[in-house]
Amino acid sequence: MRFSTLMKHPADWMIGKNVNNEVVVTSRIRLARNLRDLSFPGWAKKAERVAAMDKMRPKVEALKVMKNGFSHELSELEPLQKQVLVERHLISREQAARGQGSAAVVDRGQRLSLMINEEDHLRMQSIRAGLRLREAHQLLSKVDSALEKDLEFAYDDELGYLTACPTNLGTGMRASAMLHLPALVLTEQIGQVLQAVNKIGLAVRGLFGEGTESLGHLFQISNQATLGESEEVIISRLERVIAQIETHETNARLKMLEDEPNQLSDKIGRAYGILGYATMFDSKEAFSHISLLRMGAAMGYFPEGTMQACDSMMMEIQPAHLQLHAGAELEPEERDIIRAEILRSRLQTLTAPAINIITNDIVGGSEITGDLNFENE
């Protein structure tokens, strides 16, 4: 599959059909693996990295799930193309900075992505829409088992899988979920929730992982420790915490609708109006307005399909996607203008929010009181 073909098709997890992804947008499982008796990529010389890639890449491409997939060495891609893959969460920012000896292999549905010679020899990840960590894990486990028949991974009976970063020792697994939490942000409860999450050893990151900020009220929550715990224990704990955060976000939305329906309608209506008429947007502002539309869609202000349209817009307006759309590198101000043009065009296809039909006869909704404690969940 060519890069242009990959870009024509939205990822399966972006569409979110028949899946509840109003709060939990995506689930992701990532496994880190290294070849036995070979230097980790960060220590290997170029010739060693190329040799390792040549050993792994054919095995990955031969996987049944990778039939007619996308496979490219990163040195063959333009910087803009690599950044687009980052924005689609198919490769990491760290791998995008690498060149010869690194490759990316992605299945047609963009559910499965294998990064060759990132920080580890193999970084395998599976992404699914909604809270479906177990489905993502099941798919990745099959891939891991299939590759282990042909590739000898570095493993220690006491430490587990050996990885470049000590925090990945053991299972080598990172489980994470991307959550959309606008109501907790607007009601100023988000700090309390995130503090409680940090207390139990889970990590909270921005849209693109470690070191990035939250855009569009999107937060990524994942496990930090992988040593001494089974994959089942890690996933079960994360599922419980994510489900509780989802409940708090849902309650916060209902509380806003119950206590301040006019203010809520105003926020959603203003976001729709601004997106439909503004002539310049930076990423942060655009994401914030789209986030409010997405929340409104989940709460019944818009017809079915609007939430998926919001997810597509969030992808389309990111810097690399904008420049790919324009066919040229753009200065920040040029990107802001084109971003607004795209959003105005998309808003023309969306039905205006049905402010007058929203009622207050919804049971439930409460503020968070006291300290949150996920440890016993």
Structure overview:
The protein has 377 residues and is an alpha+beta fold. It folds into two domains: 3-251, Glutamine synthetase/guanido kinase, catalytic domain (Creatine Kinase, Chain A, domain 2); 261-357, no CATH class. Helices cover 44% and strands 14% of the residues. The chain has helices spanning 3-8, 12-15, 46-61, 79-87, 93-96, 133-148, 182-186, 190-199, 231-259, 261-277, 283-298, 306-316, 319-326, 332-347; strands at 24-33, 70-73, 103-106, 112-116, 122-129, 155-156, 160-161, 173-180, 202-205, 218-223. The strands form two sheets. The protein has an eight-stranded antiparallel β-sheet. Strands 6-7 form a two-stranded antiparallel ribbon. β4 and β5 form a beta hairpin. α4 crosses α13, α10 (261-277) packs across α11 (283-298) and α10 crosses α14. It is globular, with a radius of gyration of 21 Å. The termini are far apart. 43% of the residues are buried. The model is unreliable at 359-365 (pLDDT under 50). ATP binds at residues 26-30, 89, 123, 174-178, 205-210.
